Amino acid sequence: MDIDQLNEQIARIEAQVGLDLAGVEQVDALRSLETTVLGKKGSLGVLIGGVKDCPPEQRKAFGQTVNQAKTRVKTLFDSRLGKLQSSVSEAETKAETVFDPTLPGKCKEMGSVHPVTSVQWEIERIFERLGFTVEAGPEMESEYNNFEALNIPATHPARDMQDTFWLDNGKVLRTHTSPVQFRAMKKFGAPLRIIAPGRCFRYETIDASHENTFHQVEGLMIDRDISIPNLIAMSRMLLREVMERDVELRVRPGYFPFVEPGIEIDMNCQICGGQGCPTCKQSGWVEILPAGMVHPNVLEAGGVDTEEYTGFAFGLGLTRLAMMKFGIGDIRILNGGDLRAMVSPERLGGPILKDKV
Ligand code: PHE
């Protein structure tokens, strides 16, 4: 290349830079344009880099020419940058000084509530209206409270259904919220109306509807003349209100050592509408509310006079209910903290403070 060709090439580059710069509105865009021109591989950068390979007699003239071109191009970039920056700050000052009361307010981005928490709060409010108090028991429980007090002695086969995590201190991670039944009876006696939401743990094989960590809401109502129809009526009201739609219920016998008789209240699967899907194990129904009349042995362990009182208890599957309510087909989404599953908190009133029993 001779010096004329070089000048010609530089003139073309400068003309192009002028055109491109006129269209640049953002500082970022300007910086990247700068790289495509002055960077090592940029249109001008390549020419600058090529100087050292020129024959010695041309090197000085070439070097001067490209360096002058570089200075000119740099000035073009700098002046455009200055303009961009001043127009940004001008816009900012304008926005600050002109107060327009008709503009909508600045909206703060709100965090949101976990679906399980949101359903829990809703349930707390429903039961509060019915005269129930909200209690909390510990997640680390004694073997006695988790099993024996609930009519599940060490040799009972029902222990297999609720295999759990045993701790070095001899305690267990509770397998259900039912120990709170015992704690509340001991503390308050009868008559009694409590619910106890909380986390439970089991040694489970994980699939779409089973997890080693899940939430339940225990319910216990002890009074004179309490019977199964009270329990079913309450369940229907509760599920309809939480789901905000009519749901189909199915009641069948269920076995739990701490109730007699024991029932399972199932709800038609809200994920598939009852057609069958992995969440409902293709059955169209989900076990949502295992329940029953509190076993006399349990009432007695809690110090309640079985001549005078009867009671019902239930262990609502809170995690499952949240999945049904929000159409979340896989429990792993909830436990994995997948943010797409979080709920807008707008209509949630916050938790009701729980008593420790
Ligand atoms: N605790 C039982 C479970 O987790 C559920 C249950 C609670 C059943 C209360 C009956 C009465 O499987």
What is the terminal separation in angstroms? Answer: 91 Å
> From the alpha-carbon coordinates, what is the Rg to the nearest angstrom?
36 Å
Superfamily at the CATH H level of the largest domain? Bira Bifunctional Protein, Domain 2
The SSE order reads: HHHHHEEHHEHEEHEEEHEHHE
In the CATH hierarchy, what is the class of the largest domain?
Answer: Alpha Beta
List the domain count as a whole number.
Answer: 2
Shape: elongated
Query: Biggest sheet: strands side by side, in what order?
Result: 6-7-8-9-5-4-1-10
Task: Show unreliable segments.
Answer: none
List each distinct ligand once.
phenylalanine
Helix percent reads 40-55%
Q: How many beta strands in the DSSP annotation?
A: 10
Question: What oligomeric state is this?
Answer: single chain
Largest sheet: 8 strands, mixed
Number of helical regions: 12
**What structural class is derived from the secondary structure elements?**
alpha+beta
CATH fold-level assignment of the largest domain:
BirA Bifunctional Protein, domain 2
On the 0-100 scale, what is the average pLDDT? 90
CATH-level-2 architecture of the largest domain: 2-Layer Sandwich
Strand content: 15-25%
In short:
Helix content is 42%, strand content 18%. The protein is an alpha+beta fold and 357 residues long.
How would you characterize the overall build of this protein?
With 357 residues, the chain is of the alpha+beta class. It folds into two domains: 3-96; 115-356, Bira Bifunctional Protein, Domain 2 (BirA Bifunctional Protein, domain 2, 2-Layer Sandwich), CATH 3.30.930.10. It is 42% helix and 18% strand. It is built from twelve helices and ten strands. The strands form two sheets. The protein has an eight-stranded mixed sheet, with helices on both faces. A two-stranded antiparallel sheet has the order 2-3. Helix 2 (27-38) runs antiparallel to helix 4 and helix 3 (43-50) packs antiparallel against helix 4 (56-97). The N and C termini lie far apart (91 Å). The protein binds phenylalanine (PHE). Phenylalanine binds at residues 176, 178, 256, 259, 262, 290-292, 313-315. Phenylalanine binds next to strand 7, strand 8 and strand 9.
